[in-house]
Amino acid sequence: MMYRVPGFGSAQRLSDYFKGLAPGLFLRELCLRPGAVGALCPSSRHLARHMAKQVPASGDGLVVELGAGTGVVTQALLDSGVPAHRLLVIEYSGPFVRRLRKRFPHLNVVQGNAADLRRLLPPEARVRAIVSSLPLCSLPAPMTHSILEQWQHLLHDNGVAIQFTYNLRRPKWKNQLRAQQTGSKIIWANLPPANISTFSFKTAKLPAPRHEHVSAEPYR
Ligand SMILES: C[S@@+](CC[C@H](N)C(=O)[O-])C[C@H]1O[C@@H](n2cnc3c(N)ncnc32)[C@H](O)[C@@H]1O
Fold this sequence. Notes:
By secondary structure, this protein is an alpha/beta fold. 34% of the residues lie in helices and 20% in strands. It has one domain (4-200): Vaccinia Virus protein VP39 (Rossmann fold, 3-Layer(aba) Sandwich), CATH 3.40.50.150. α4 packs across α5 (72-79). The chain is globular. The structure holds S-adenosylmethionine. S-adenosylmethionine (SAM) binds at residues 36-39, 42-43, 66-67, 69-70, 72-73, 90-93, 96, 113-115, 133-135, 139.
């Protein structure tokens, strides 16, 4: 007999979903670096699907995923039609990176700090969209500042940024973005519920950020 869980479908699908998430790994990373993980559990497929839907369908340039964790959003991006060769995945934690490379052997998964994003990209790369699960509310403030400066620089040519947050009011990082917010949606079928914001950057090219590198071990 199948039990239905509102928002998730059948109990079988729910069980498959949790197996795919590697909850043990997520919990271990959360205990080691709570501020860097910034979530009690991996993102739900609903959250991931809605984030992926915000990526402009057409256009060249890379789609860069930041803070991929267990890969729920990565999978949703691929499912939504982002070609593997246009997707670049950035993750800071070694154990998550190993798991991502095993799960998506055909993808370019780069271990690095999103605050150094420009250095992690191929030279002359054009970025169409940044899809971020970074916990911008719990990262050290200079790091958040540095990350958002990179977005400003990389997305100036009509790019979009998609970011979710558990702060359903107005998180501070939003005040730092010089971009137009074009979308906002609360996903209730996520633990806890999360707000997805979409930003469009139609601003003039800005000078390169001055402080890209925050520190070798920023979460110590
Ligand atoms: C909310 S969790 C990931 C959620 C992910 N969607 C999932 O379902 O597993 C945030 C992720 O951001 C990563 N992260 C934190 N700070 C980072 C940074 N400065 N650069 C790159 N990744 C970072 C963490 O290691 C973690 O995997």
